[in-house]
Write a structure and sequence with these properties.
The protein is an alpha+beta fold and 413 residues long. The protein is built from three helices and 13 strands; from the N terminus they run αααβββββββββββββ. β7 and β8 form a beta hairpin. The chain starts with a helix and ends in a 9-residue tail after the last strand. Bound molecules: zinc ion (ZN).
Length: 413
């Protein structure tokens, strides 16, 4: 069968499914239920696809949120790293200050020792000075006279006195000089103490900076942790959406499979209808009942209405016949014309063995002139076109151009 016909056939089946529900044959009833099942599956599939669209949108939004959080985390990490670099610099400054402080401490200790030495030296010198002074005093009481007698001359005597005075003066100068040195040492010590205090103040300032940076970093770490937790939640959400998506895709696939199965069932039924002519049978003359599922003969061939009208064929039909499949009673080639004032839309088939059949009043013709059809192929749908009072199939049989009574050639059972 040609594609165009196949498509037309599907349309025909759909129409007949809805039109022939009430009293059509068993096969068509089954088709109707298959068809409604298929409609149900189609709408289920539509629903799942709408859900999938929503899930996809949610998924994308979640992914965007995750990307934002990750960007935020990267900026936090950068800030934390910068602060850590600052801390590292401060650590180095701290360490340098500590070294300097240790050095000053060492110098102070040294100064302390020097001072101690100086004080001892001063004490010694002062002792010596005192002894000399005492000796000179005693010489003043006793020996000045002796020095006078022992001196070779007065001049010599004066010289002796001067020497003694000079010695004591030298001692006094020495003590003064040592006192001065001690005072210098004290000053140096005070300066060192001051430097040390400055260094300690610098260290304290650095410690404050360190404390501040550490606090900032703690806040940044907390923010980072919070963002991480948010990301984990989002990640879980994403996984849920993915799982949901997976589930819906699986459902959609299952429904697709069911639809395929149904389509196969419908196709199988259709082909059965075509091949076996629904409930009709093939007679000894080789003709198939042309209206599957409808066994009523509404009007037979011959004179009717008190011989006022000769009926040139048989009228087949029944309740709900409109749109039902009309099948080729025998294989052959479709002949034109397809429309007629009385027959309406019609199909004429030349079977090539002297027989010609005609199918009239169709709602729709599904074949074209010149087309070859097989016995049982759906060629048209029942309608009420032309000169009729209601929907039915008007069927005629010709042999060598002469009308025959179709009842002699076809049988429903
Ligand atoms: Zn008729």
């Amino acid at each position: 069968m040609k594609m165009k016909q196949a498509a037309a056939l599907l349309t025909a089946i759909c129409v007949s499914l809805t039109m022939c529900l009430s009293d059509s044959g068993m096969d068509l009833r089954v088709s109707a239920s298959l068809s409604s099942e298929k409609n149900e599956l189609d709408s289920k599939k539509d629903q799942i696809e709408a859900e999938l669209d929503q899930i996809e949108a949610d998924l994308q939004a979640t992914k965007d949120n995750i990307a934002q959080e990750e960007q935020y985390q990267a900026s936090l990490t950068q800030k934390i790293q910068l602060n850590q670099e600052k801390l590292s610099v401060l650590e180095q400054e701290m360490s340098a200050l500590s070294d300097e402080l240790a050095e000053k401490e060492q110098q102070l200790t040294e100064k302390e020792a020097e001072l101690s030495d100086k004080e001892a030296e001063i004490a010694d010198t002062y002792e010596t000075y005192k002894q000399r002074m005492r000796a000179m005093y005693m010489a003043g009481e006793v020996s000045v006279l002796e020095m006078l007698f022992e001196a070779d001359s007065f001049a010599d005597f004066l010289t002796n006195i001067e020497i003694m005075k000079a010695v004591s003066a030298h001692d006094a100068d020495l003590v003064d000089s040592l006192e001065q040195q001690k005072s210098d040492l004290k000053n140096a010590q005070a300066q060192l103490e001051q430097t040390k205090e400055d260094l300690e103040a610098q260290q304290a300032a650095i410690a404050v900076s360190q404390q501040e940076i550490n606090e900032t970093n703690q806040q940044l770490q907390a923010d980072y942790q919070e963002s991480k937790t948010a990301t984990q939640d989002l990640e879980q959400e994403r996984l849920n959406f993915e799982a949901n998506k997976e589930q819906r895709l699986k459902e959609a696939e299952e429904i697709d499979n069911e639809i395929q199965k149904l389509l196969a069932q419908i196709a199988a039924e259709n082909s059965q209808n075509q091949n076996q002519g629904g409930s009709g049978i093939i007679t000894e003359q080789g003709f198939l009942w042309p209206l599957p599922g409808f066994s009523n003969v509404n009007s037979p061939y011959g004179w009717r209405w008190n011989n006022s009208d000769f009926h040139t064929g048989v009228d087949l039909g029944g309740s709900g016949v409109y749109g039902a499949n009309i099948v080729a009673a025998k294989s052959g080639v479709v002949v034109s014309p397809m429309t007629h004032w009385s027959y309406g839309n019609n199909v004429v088939i030349n079977h090539g063995d002297g027989y010609v059949t005609l199918y009239a009043h169709c709602s729709q013709v599904l074949v074209s002139p010149g087309q070859t059809v097989n016995q049982g192929d759906v060629i048209a749908l029942v309608g009420a076109t032309g000169n009729v009072t209601g929907p039915h199939l008007h069927f005629e049989v010709y042999y060598n151009g002469v009308r025959q009574d179709p009842a002699a050639f076809i049988s429903y059972s």
